[in-house]
Amino acid sequence: xxxxxxxxxxxxxxxxxxxxxxxxxxxxxxxxxxxxxxxxxxxxxxxxxxxxxxxxxxxxxxxxxxxxxxxxxxxxxxxxxxxxxxxxxxxxxxxxxxxxxxxxxxxxxxxxxxxxxxxxxxxxxxxxxxxxxxxxxxxxxxxxxxxxxxxxxxxxxxxxxxxxxxxxxxxxxxxxxxxxxxxxxxxxxxxxxxxxxxxxxxxxxxxxxxxxxxxxxxxxxxxxxxxxxxxxxxxxxxxxxxxxxxxxxxxxxxxxxxxxxxxxxxxxxxxxxxxxxxxxxxxxxxxxxxxxxxxxxxxxxxxxxxxxxxxxxxxxxxxxxxxxxxxxxxxxxxxxxxxxxx
Length: 342
Prior knowledge:
With 342 residues, the protein is α/β, with parallel strands linked by helices.
């Protein structure tokens, strides 16, 4: 039975017993996870009368993703401890129990799991749809909506389109004909102008000031480019710096950090889209539960303390570089170079 059919049949059969649902994305939700959650939230309510709430446990770390939430009016909320008490039925999208990149408690059982990534072990859930042949998890939700042969709201279709584009690098990594068929079927429902606005959001003065600082401070050690931004106005700058610096020729990894409200926020990016950045970052930090990620993207934060002195921050930043160099097997004989300084 096809994934979409299995999902629709389960919701139809259990609509009274599973409402309301708590839908969890991974902690640093990307377009695919948010589109999947948004589409399921809509499908459950409008087709089966099932109430639901979408939550995440970490941080929305890219400005494009924040614009996606705002412009498409995705009802995404920060997970609260009380949510886990109020809800008895849970859905994980684009992640699975035990993955470590989500805030789903180990002592709970999921009602539904929908994902495209290989399982560590078979997910314990009433319905587990894990299809590694999919290019994006949101394809499964898109197919479910398309199979109903009903009008798909523009904001839902736009979210699904962006989720597919983000996970396939604008379709350049798409290998399945099904991905192209789903994409083309959604296009007639999509708000193209809003999609373009999401992909090209306006940037603040602080954003460009941060980029200037990143160029001044960036150092290269082997095939890794590092940058510690110091104190920042928004943790989102750390993720943007990592994205920006990874484009430097010859770099396989970009590792950046920034100090914000007593925490050191960190972002790791890999040039290889299949790199397990999350695993690398967890090996580097000593508080594994504070790091999460997806594919070539990982991030997290380390508690330092609001009253920490400059020497404490510097010591931590140096320690992270040393551990990253060791984890990536970079020769210690190579000295870091400040490549953009005259």
